[in-house]
Amino acid sequence: MNLLKEDYPLSVQFDFEKGELSTYQKRAERKLSDLSMMFQAKEIVKQAVAKDDPVIYEIFYYGFQTSLSDMALGVTRIQPGTIGGEYYMTKGHYHEAHDQPEIYFCVKGNGYLLLETREGEFRAEKWTRGTISHIPPMWAHRVVNIGNQPLVFVASYHLAAGHEYEPVIKRGFLKRIFEENGKAVFTLNNQRE
Ligand code: M6P
Ligand code: ZN
After folding, report:
1. CA separation (Å) from 73 to 23, 52, 146, 178, 185?
2. Pocket flag, ligand 1, residue 91 (CB < 6 Å)
3. Closest residue CA from atom 16 of ligand 1
4. How many structural domains comprise the chain?
């Protein structure tokens, strides 16, 4: 095989202190306005967006593309906090490609990985530092930070997986997580179509 420049091994560094990749190709920020459809308390969201539109989470990306393959790393750092009592979380998505799984590795913080299929199967995986979860194909996935520090997780997936957000924007997940007297409480999402 004739190796091209991109076919050689490559390493990147994760900074545990900061909870971010030291080398990344792209950084994205998701503010409350990008997630306005996700939280239950739409009116409170509207006011908070108008006031200071806080950053809910950031993502640091690195893509490894060789002549035969593609792998991506995403490091996501979710801030601690609630809006209308509901904990900060990622948008959540399905993969466009129906045969694509993903690995999530919680490296900092506490929370839940919520998973759901189109047929209505639901799972909530409890996360502490060190939990590694396999997300099988066809399961939507969202991470919720229930702690009082940033929750950081590393994702490994194929770029070919793609992101599908529409069904999550429309239906949300079966359950939401609220803070009640310092505790995480699950409630049924009553805004489902
Ligand atoms: C992980 C990966 C990314 C994803 C990110 C944020 O890093 O799964 O593909 O974009 O989390 O999640 P979301 O796209 O749902 O906002
Ligand atoms: Zn994914």
Report:
1. 11, 30, 23, 29, 31
2. yes
3. 91
4. 1
